[in-house]
Specification:
Elements lengths: L3 H18 L3 E6 L1 H11 L7 E4 L7 E5 L6 H10 L3 E8 L10 H9 L8 E7 L2 E7 L3 H7 L2 E2 L2 E8 L9 E8 L4 H8 L4 H9 L3 E3 L2 E2 L11 E4 L3 E11 L5 E8 L1
Antiparallel strand pairs: 1-3, 2-3, 4-6, 4-8, 5-6, 7-8, 9-14, 10-11, 10-12, 12-13, 13-14
Helix pairs in contact: 1-2, 6-7
């Protein structure tokens, strides 16, 4: 498996060739942190035009870059004709003898075929079936070679992305003294300020994919992830109370 620096250099090369040659190209799948690092690296130069593929709010997504002269709607039309990402459905051939498969089982079986992790997006489960996002160029190879996961014979087919489960999102109000991130994380996850600071010290808090400092201030629109606790979108200030506290709005992901 390539290390993070190699993957990010590869993605940057894809983006630059998109601009230089006036073509559309896609990246491999990246984690939220990798996407954030890439965008942080290029934002000082010029804006990249892209869509994210691999499921709404997925942990792992692929960039679909398009050149600056192209409009987003044109890009979406291209994706309808030839999407470089597919969603595959995996189920046991005989339900009676099928095992309950885990994320680790499915991931391990696919990677044992020599398919690298960056070729794969999120893996999820529904109604005793497994679903995996995959770069289309690997589809035929996987269909030909993945016949069994653990002791379960499987059948695989491409399916509509509409089958992907949507994450539950709940809008909430929280109270905080300011829009400092450490205070907001403390309020969202019901932590003491000291406990919240431990997460920052261990670099377990991410803002828009990048490791965040507790002292940073939010403006509204940021996506916050706290490893082991969950994630939320910060929507912004709703009002100030008479006692000088702030009423803030968040969108929590279930």
């Amino acid at each position: 498996m390539k290390d993070r620096e190699d993957i990010l250099a590869h993605v940057e090369d894809i983006w630059r060739k998109t601009e230089e040659r006036g073509i559309v190209r896609n990246s491999p799948f990246l984690s939220e942190r990798e996407r954030g690092l890439f965008l942080e690296k290029i934002k000082r130069e010029r804006g990249a035009k892209f869509l994210l593929l691999g499921g709404e709010e997925a942990e792992r997504q692929a960039f679909f870059f398009y050149p600056s002269f192209m409009e987003e709607e044109e890009c979406r039309e291209l994706l309808l004709e030839d999407n470089p990402v597919v969603l595959l459905e995996i189920q046991g051939k005989q339900k009676k003898f099928s095992e309950e498969l885990s994320h680790r089982d499915v991931l391990g079986a696919i990677m044992s075929l020599g398919i690298e992790r960056e070729m794969l997006g999120d893996i999820f489960f529904r109604d005793e079936k497994s679903y995996v996002y995959l770069l289309r160029k690997m589809k035929d190879y996987l269909l030909e070679n993945l016949q069994q996961i653990r002791h379960t014979g499987v059948e695989i087919k491409e399916c509509e992305e509409a089958l992907a489960p949507k994450q539950e999102r709940i809008e909430e109000q929280i109270f905080a003294a300011s829009e400092r991130l450490d205070g907001i994380v403390s309020a969202v996850f019901h932590l003491s300020r000291g406990k919240a600071q431990e997460y920052f010290a261990k670099e377990l808090v991410y803002k828009d994919g990048l490791v965040a400092k507790g002292s940073s201030s939010l403006k509204g629109g940021e996506k916050i992830s706290v490893r082991g606790l969950g994630k939320f979108h910060y929507l912004g200030l709703e009002k100030n109370t008479k006692k000088g506290r702030m009423v803030l709005r968040i969108l929590r992901y279930g």
